[in-house]
UniProtKB/TrEMBL annotation:
<keyword id="KW-0808">Transferase</keyword>
<dbReference type="InterPro" id="IPR001173">
    <property type="entry name" value="Glyco_trans_2-like"/>
</dbReference>
<dbReference type="GO" id="GO:0016740">
    <property type="term" value="F:transferase activity"/>
</dbReference>
<protein>
    <submittedName>
        <fullName>Glycosyltransferase</fullName>
    </submittedName>
</protein>
<feature type="region of interest" description="Disordered">
    <location>
        <begin position="292"/>
        <end position="330"/>
    </location>
</feature>
<dbReference type="InterPro" id="IPR029044">
    <property type="entry name" value="Nucleotide-diphossugar_trans"/>
</dbReference>
<dbReference type="Pfam" id="PF00535">
    <property type="entry name" value="Glycos_transf_2"/>
</dbReference>
<feature type="domain" description="Glycosyltransferase 2-like">
    <location>
        <begin position="16"/>
        <end position="126"/>
    </location>
</feature>
């Protein structure tokens, strides 16, 4: 693939490490330390781009020593990723999150197969930190973004993925999906991956590029899991209706029936921990049908896949969302 910059006058570096963050203060020192360690490894990346998606826009002090801070003023992870893609200079864009632990050489390992022309995108094995060893359910571990371990299907996840810049002309970060969006707060990576696969992108796991994910363990109460089940279902309905072109017969009736099943389950089993995952699956199923009922009232966002039409090359980014990049100190 031939590198294609979003700005013809901008010099490209081999790889950029991009992190979108809402700026949680307890995560910033560790993030900066990891970015600086990666920048010191000459085989890794030539720049690190932190996309400041915090409400206050207060992360400019992180800039310096090869770290650039750019602003995405409006909320939403998909919007922040779009801003990061526009501002990064690399031929290869390596993405991770502010709660992910990685080795200094990790970005270079992720970028190497792409720079060599062997792959167009790479996925990292993502393992949950040891503090989550008591979560045995594959469903729940997957909902916390554990992915690409031996035996898993390959999938791009924001905790650890890389892509060639040319793919930005084939896929978009749909701003109606992803963290920060009410309801459909998941699925933006799945949609992006499906778009680029439809255009022949080569994607595989880099087995020796494992990262460790440390999401906030304090949030993982029953209400969090119920909300996640609902958001996952709504997001999957959006993906199925708008991208896959699927339909669901009588979604309103199915929603009513599934709501009754959930009510019966709760009446019978209450808060029985042994039945909790079953409750989550019922919530998810209910959200899928409710999502189809809602989405089917609007035109499909993408052309039918059978037509082979390419996705639009450039997502719209509200002008107010892209601020001037902070100038690195020193």
């Amino acid at each position: 693939m031939t590198a294609a910059s979003t700005d013809p006058g901008r010099a490209l570096v081999s790889a950029s490490l991009v992190v979108c963050t809402t700026g949680r203060s307890d995560r910033m020192p560790g993030l900066v330390a990891r970015l600086q360690a990666a920048l010191r490894d000459q085989r890794a990346v030539s720049e690190a781009v932190v996309v400041d998606n915090s409400p206050e826009g207060s992360l400019s002090e992180l800039a310096g020593d090869g770290i650039r801070v750019v602003r995405a003023a409006l909320p939403g992870l998909s919007l922040a990723r779009t801003v990061g893609c526009i501002q990064a200079r690399g031929d290869v864009l390596v993405f991770t999150d502010d709660d992910v632990e990685f080795a200094p050489s990790w970005p270079g390992r992720m970028a190497a197969p792409i720079l060599a022309g062997e792959l167009d995108a790479t996925a990292a094995p993502v393992r949950l930190g040891p503090e989550f060893d008591d979560i045995a359910s594959p469903l729940l571990r997957g909902w916390l973004a554990e992915a690409n371990l031996p035996g898993d299907a390959v999938r791009l996840v924001g905790a650890g993925m890389a892509l060639h810049r040319d793919l930005l002309g084939l896929g978009v970060w749909d701003q109606r999906l992803g963290a920060g969006v009410a309801g459909t707060a998941f699925g933006e990576e799945t949609l992006f991956e499906s778009m680029i696969r439809a255009q022949g992108a080569r994607i595989d796991v880099v087995a020796d590029a494992e990262v460790v994910h440390h999401p906030d363990a304090t949030r993982l109460g029953p209400d969090y899991w119920r909300r996640t089940a609902q958001q996952k279902g709504l997001s999957e309905a959006y993906f199925a209706y708008h991208w896959l072109g699927e339909t669901m017969p009588r979604p309103a009736l199915r929603t009513a029936r599934r709501r009754v099943r959930l009510w019966v389950h709760r009446r019978r089993h209450g808060s029985d921990p042994a039945r909790f995952e079953q409750e989550l699956r019922l919530i998810h199923s209910l959200a899928v049908s409710a999502g189809f009922s809602r989405e089917s009232r609007s035109p499909r966002a993408y052309p039918p896949r059978a037509a082979g039409s390419p996705t639009r090359a450039t997502p719209s980014v509200p002008a107010a969302s892209v601020g001037s990049p902070e100038t690195p100190r020193g």
